[in-house]
Amino acid sequence: MKIADWGSSLFLMIFGAAVAWQAEKLSFGSFRAPGPGFFPYCLGLILMGLSLVVLVQGVRKKAGLPETGLRRDKVSIALAAIFAYALVLDFLGYLLSSFILMSVLIRITVKKAWWFAPVLACLISLASYILFKVWLKVLLPAGFWGF
Amino acid sequence: MQVFHDVLYGFTVSLAPGNLLSCFVGVLLGTLIGVIPGLGVVAAISLLIPITFKMSAVASIIMLAGIYYGAQYGGSITSILVNIPGESTSVVTCLDGYQMARQGRAGAALGISAFGSFIAGTIGVAGIMLFAPLLVKVALKFDAPDYAGLFILGLTLVAYLVSGSKIKALIMAVVGLILGTVGVDPVAGTQRFSFGSMSLLQGIELPPVAMGLFGISEVLLNLEKGFHQEIFQTRLKGLLPSREDWRVSLRPIGRGTVVGFFLGLLPGCGAIVSTFLSYALEKKLSKTPERFGNGAIEGVAAPEAANNAASESALIPLLSLGIPTSATTALLMGALMIHGLNPGPMLIKEHPDVFWGIVTSMYVGNVMLVILNLPLIPLWVKVLKIPYYLLSPLIFLFCIIGTYSINSSYVDIVTMGIFGLLGYLLRKCAYEPAPLLLAFVLGGKLEVAVRQSLIYSRGSFDIFLQRPVAATCLALSALMILSSIVTGLLNRKSRLAPLGGGD
């Protein structure tokens, strides 16, 4: 996993640098009276150092065999569905957004007749609505249609 | 005897109807979660933390702890029947348990793992009752520098004991500490890294982080690989182990309990390591080691006892020192703190009901598990047949509802999504997310301890070396870091044809 080591360590190094840079704006204080920036600043520097080690190791490592048969597309769809769900939840309400999310997720997990995913999704969202909102009284958004 | 008095008091707490019910719900859910391979304990506990907000502190921790040790029972069912570990701690159980099932002895395997777990659980609880108060007496003398040392030792131990790259595990711990600094500075009260966002000002919430890293990312990885579901078709009969089974298994159960109990005390993957170690130990001690891997009942009994004992003794450092030793105990610690309790030496004194209530409830829970589990096995077998296209969307939905219910805010769902993506990417790049979660929970405490120490000492780092506890802890941590760097260098030189990282 040569590329994974390279990419992750470079990213973490930049992240560490960003943390240290932001922490510097907070007060570092002194060793006598460490300020709010003290701890994150040190952590940022440590992170940069450790990532450098991984980077060096990655350079010397030989590339492994690439994995095959992975469905990255499904992962992207599932993640996009969660973020989209978060954004539309307050507007569409729990029932409708959950129905859409469940349909998408079932659709990408299994191949069945076209009606299978929507019907199952409908059942799941109704059942979970009754369980969580009606029975356990969890506050779930009603959305524009008001229930 | 003070202990007897305390234990009796504990039972009055844990046997109160409400607490008894939450114990029951906890162990039942725990077994269920243990049985389902895709859903781990960490994700399950973080899912339920928001639901416990309305419950009393004792009842919620009793329930969450019940999930934790209940899952140890459930995990073995999946290992034996499907040859897939339901939990990471029952990987070893697959070796002989599944073979026993193939030979038509699934009942005996399930039975011995339940009884073995029960015996280990009983001894483990007795151990907590004896050791935790002693440790508390010692811990009351600890000061800020000692805690700083202990926290650092805990984090390095976790990083040192993970299976993959130790440097990467250390990196995860540092990232966890950094994420823990978001929000209000615990000493001076200044805003940090909130970038003007109200949600970030309160700090990053624990449940979305845990659910993202352990729940969502797990489903994503499964989506990517595709699912395989296959249950070994066998008739379950004779759940009670025979007299011969008992004769062979009793000593392994005893040894597994001891191994598990002591390894569980150490930060790191105590429960997992203890199962491997006790399996290896039994194989070594056995007169017929060739039976191992072909359905030896000792190979089921010993590791099952070990993982249960370890999952219980792991609560000792948590409840007496305030140091979580795994991602799961870190979550329990988070749950205690959410309920306004501060795990540590003062807990037993200030909230004896919580401490003794939890400890005795674990015994009650173990009794429930052994009574419940055997008759319910046909039900768990049905659970195993739930198709994955139903299970994985449901895990997503439960994670979303659990997260949303904390603040009724979509921001937490976004946070969970981000950590789901992060967990997925980290595993792809062979980083282990457990140290991150542990450090995230411990971060605030470590920072306070370090800064207070420096304030006491007027800026001199000698304070960490003058106190024996702190100095020992730091020396051990330094030793571990150095040794992993040295072995890393040696390995690289001796490796002729290196394969890629542990992916």
Q: Would you mind describing this structure in some detail?
A:
- The complex is a heterodimer of chains A (147) and B (503).
- Chain A has helices at 2-25, 38-60, 72-109, 116-135.
- With 147 residues, chain A is mainly α.
- Chain A has two domains: 2-60; 72-135, no CATH class.
- In chain A, helix 3 (72-109) crosses helix 4.
- The model of chain B is unreliable at 496-503 (pLDDT under 50).
- In chain B, 61% of the residues are buried.
- With 503 residues, chain B is mainly alpha-helical.
- Chain B has one domain (2-491).
Can you lay out the helices and strands and say which pair or pack?
The complex is a heterodimer of chains A (147) and B (503).
Chain A: H1 2-25, H2 38-60, H3 72-109, H4 116-135
Helix pairs in contact in A: 1-2, 3-4
Chain B: H1 2-14, H2 17-35, H3 41-48, H4 57-82, H5 91-102, H6 106-139, H7 144-161, H8 166-180, E1 183-184, E2 191-192, H9 198-201, H10 206-225, H11 243-265, H12 270-285, H13 298-313, H14 315-321, H15 327-338, H16 347-350, H17 352-384, H18 388-407, H19 410-428, H20 434-456, H21 463-466, H22 468-494
Antiparallel strand pairs in B: 1-2
Helix pairs in contact in B: 1-17, 2-4, 2-17, 3-4, 3-10, 3-15, 3-18, 4-5, 4-6, 4-13, 4-15, 4-17, 5-6, 5-13, 6-11, 6-13, 6-14, 6-17, 7-8, 7-20, 7-22, 8-20, 10-18, 10-19, 11-12, 11-13, 12-13, 15-20, 18-19
Q: What sort of overall outline of chain B do the alpha carbons produce when their principal axes are compared?
A: globular
User: Strand-and-helix sequence of chain B, N→C?
Assistant: HHHHHHHHEEHHHHHHHHHHHHHH
Give the helix/strand class of chain B.
mainly alpha
Radius of gyration from the alpha-carbon trace of chain A, in angstroms: 24 Å
Shape of chain A: flat
The rounded Rg of chain B comes to 22 Å
What amount of the residues of chain B lies in strands? under 5%
Number of domains of chain A: 2
Could you state the oligomeric state of the chains shown? Answer: heterodimer
Mean pLDDT of chain A: 85
